[in-house]
Write a structure and sequence with these properties.
By secondary structure, the protein is an alpha+beta fold. The chain is built from four helices and 18 strands. The structure holds S-adenosylmethionine.
Length: 277
């Protein structure tokens, strides 16, 4: 008889013997109505690739493929779960666009995911944090059923009966020292800006031509919005920069009331980027 002897060790029958399978979380399926809520929270659609880390009987991956038309990958360390997932996918009439891998999610290549779903434990989510932030593309969405990521604050949180869903977007790393030029209509000067970042939270300031605090520096995926006051025509006026980060370059536009929209660009000083966690 199979049994979970404690939270992490499962004994799987193999012939007359047992294989010891060290899982980090026991199998408990997400109720199907909560699966729908998780996929809706991440706005899963046909252009997405959903990875369910610790896929159990495959229900999240199967629903993502069947109802949302997404490509789906389920990963589970327990071979019985993978067999169950494959059988369930077959029963659901799915053979393309879905795959199940019998391996540890800690050792899996997850970089192609556009959405990651989790029903693990907070301590396991916390152990996974660095991998998610290092390997997933900025803009990848993450939904976790019931378990948070401690200091990586969720962007959204919803309660459904006695279930809680948490949502994050992988932020681009905007930390470091950036140099750029303010267009002529806005004063025409060179500036340097320093940004510190912890997960998606940032603190930014202009370092030169003079120290100027940045009121808001918001990063969502690879999109940045900066709001601050600049001296324009001898008056301190609120300006708004928006832009897209691509490696060490931000390209975007800036606006202020009564001023035309202008293009804006800045470049990061080599080796000033810091880890997000
Ligand atoms: C709570 S269940 C969630 C199942 C499914 N995602 C759902 O929400 O219905 C957790 C699953 O993670 C699997 N698991 C635990 N540790 C793992 C690891 N290190 N790598 C891959 N799978 C793991 C377990 O075998 C179990 O099926």
């Amino acid at each position: 008889m199979n049994k979970i002897t404690d939270k992490t060790i499962t004994l799987i029958p193999s012939g007359n013997d047992f294989i010891r399978c060290e899982i980090d979380v026991p199998f408990v399926p997400t109720p199907l109505n909560i699966v729908d809520e998780m996929l809706a929270m991440a706005h899963v659609g046909k252009n997405d690739t959903v990875y369910d880390l610790g896929c159990g009987d495959g229900r999240i991956a199967i629903t993502a493929a069947k109802k949302c038309g997404a490509r789906a990958v389920g990963i589970d360390l327990d071979p019985r779960r993978i067999k169950e997932s494959r059988d369930n996918a077959k029963k659901a009439g799915l053979n393309e666009n879905i795959s199940f891998l019998n391996q540890s999610f800690f050792k899996s290549d997850i970089k192609n995911a556009t959405v990651v779903t989790l029903y693990l434990l907070s301590n396991v989510n916390i152990k996974l944090r660095a991998k998610l932030l290092d390997e997933l593309q900025p803009g990848t969405r993450i939904v976790s059923h019931d378990f948070h990521m401690e200091k990586w604050r969720a962007e959204k949180r919803i309660e459904k009966g006695n279930h809680t869903l948490f949502f994050w977007t992988i932020p681009a790393n905007i930390s470091g020292i950036w140099h750029g030029k303010i267009p002529k209509t806005y004063g025409g000067f060179n500036f340097s800006m320093g940004i510190k970042q912890h997960f998606q939270e940032t603190i930014a300031e202009f370092i030169s031509p003079e120290k100027t605090p940045v009121k808001r520096c918001k990063i969502k995926g690879n999109t940045v919005e900066i709001r601050m006051k600049l001296l324009i025509d001898k008056q301190s006026r609120p300006v708004r920069f928006t832009g897209k980060i691509n490696d060490d370059i931000i390209n975007g536009t800036m606006t202020a009331i009564g001023k035309p929209e202008e293009k804006w660009r800045c470049v990061r000083e080599a080796f000033t980027v810091k880890p997000l966690y």
